[in-house]
Amino acid sequence: MDSILKHKVIWITGASSGIGRALAIELAKYNTRLVLSARNMELLEQTKQFCKLPPNDILIIPFDLKNTSNAITMAAQIINTFGSIDVLINNGGQSQRSKADETPLDFDRDLMEVNYFSAVALTKAVTPYMKRQKSGKIIVVSSIAGKFGFYLRSSYSAAKHALHGFFESYRLETEKLGISTLIVCPGKIKTNISLSALNNKGELHGVMDPSHINATSPEECAKQIINAVLNNKQEIFIGGKELILIKLKRFFPKLFNKIIRKQSPY
Predict the structure, then answer these.
(1) Would you say residue 160 lies in a domain?
(2) Is residue 3 domain-resident?
(3) Quick check: is 237 in a domain?
(4) Overall pTM > 0.90
(5) Domain holding 172: CATH number?
(6) Which of 132, 151, 194, 217 has the greatest count of CB atoms below 10 A from its CB?
(7) Range of 243's domain?
(8) Mean pLDDT on 158-164
(9) Domains in the chain: how many in total?
(10) What are the two backbone dihedrals, phi and then psi, of residue 138, each rounded to the nearest 5 degrees?
(11) pLDDT, tens digit, 9 for 90 and up, residues 172-195
């Protein structure tokens, strides 16, 4: 498939499942060169097989988003392998299912590290190469939780809000250098995000939230993200009827406040 994405080097975090895996599989159809990252090497190998690209066109760099201290080294590894970094997709993250006053501060810090600081660290690591190329794209997978707070999501929502502040500023500072920024705000997507969410004991929630069972598929989400890239969008929202809450908060705040209080945390 010929497009502006052909032969582009695209680094995807959270590529072992969900939206990240769906993005990798869909982007492979554009004859891209992919860098896949997540913690689980076995699942990354599965994603690589699903992509059906020549082996030399996929690089796997496993790491934990809690520790991006070697982000500069990883970016250099990609440059040494492919010669460029054209797109960074900050997709990996972890959600939460715990009340704010019952969540230990250490867990709050971990959630910020995974959902916010990792994206900042990786973006800072690739920016010098994009500036040198005078081209590049940063994609940040935020959430509608980045637009308003919600039950049992205090630190997760805070991290997503922080992403908007950082990357809206980053966009203004780098767009004249040839770097564009896309912020993606999914609503309910049928992934394992609720299964892997942390409770107040640091344990996995381990349950698929009912609201996610019939939600938008990760494959559809991936297609909409790629379409936004091809059309040079700056921000998109993906999901179902839950997206109406964003408009309600902006234009009808009193109605939003009544409705949001009646929503189930799950």
Answers:
(1) yes
(2) no
(3) yes
(4) yes
(5) 3.40.50.720
(6) 194
(7) 9-260
(8) 98
(9) 1
(10) -110, 125
(11) 999 999 999 999 999 999 998 988
Catalytic-residue membership of 156: yes
Inside any domain, residue 174: yes
Q: Encode pLDDT of 74-96 as tens digits.
A: 999 999 999 999 999 999 999 99
Average pLDDT, the chain: 96
**Which amino acid makes up residue 258?**
K
Residues 223-261: tens digit of each pLDDT: 999 999 999 999 999 999 999 999 999 999 999 999 999
